[in-house]
Amino acid sequence: MSGRFTGPQKAVYEVVLAAQLACLDAVRPGAEFHDYHKMAERVLAQGYIDIGLCRGSLDEVLETGAYKQFYMHRAGHWLGMDVHDAGLYQLKGASQKLVPGMVLTVEPGTYIRPADNVPDDFWDIGIRIEDDVLVTATGIENLTLGAPKSVAEVEAACRR
């Protein structure tokens, strides 16, 4: 353990971080719960194309679901009395609107299993970046803002 990312680890981490930051920007009062998940899908799919894990245009990768080989979960969930708190994500078939006082996780991730279409250097890389946020009247309050997040911050924390 060197406390430093390998090239492929860093590339994947930066893709997940870009998705996580985009998701944080998408969480706001009045937005639909599923909006930030859709943002995660778009940013991750483009990132997978950029680093060579998926092939084709962004629209093709999203339409075929090719990105799901590496992203098979949602971008977050309600947070409250339980880690996965109770609550509906949809009401009458429509995505729940976010309102002030709601608390949720923002945690896109990537899990790369060995496969014929995956370069060996990417095998067994798993990254998930989580923040917990409170929806406020004007946006969000990030409850986990102090956690290391950039590549440099994570590497520094790992060397301690």
Characterization of the model:
With 160 residues, the chain is an alpha+beta fold. The chain has one domain: Creatinase/methionine aminopeptidase superfamily (Creatine Amidinohydrolase, Alpha-Beta Complex), CATH 3.90.230. The chain contains 4 helices and 7 strands; from the N terminus they run αααβββββββα. The strands form 3 sheets. It has a 3-stranded antiparallel sheet. Strands 1-2 form a two-stranded antiparallel ribbon. β6 and β7 form a beta hairpin. The chain starts with 6 loop residues before the first helix and ends with a helix. The model has no long low-confidence stretch (mean pLDDT 93).
* Anisotropy-based shape: globular
| Sequence of secondary-structure elements | HHHEEEEEEEH
What is the CATH topology classification name?
Answer: Creatine Amidinohydrolase
Strand order of the largest sheet: 3-6-7
The domain tally reads: 1
CATH superfamily name? Creatinase/methionine aminopeptidase superfamily
Mean pLDDT: 93
Determine the oligomeric state from the structure: single chain
Helix content: 25-40%
Low-confidence stretches: none
Number of helices: 4
Whole-number radius of gyration?
Answer: 16 Å
Largest sheet: 3 strands, antiparallel
CATH class term? Alpha Beta
Share of residues in strands: 15-25%
DSSP strand count: 7
User: Structural class, please?
Assistant: alpha+beta
CATH architecture: Alpha-Beta Complex
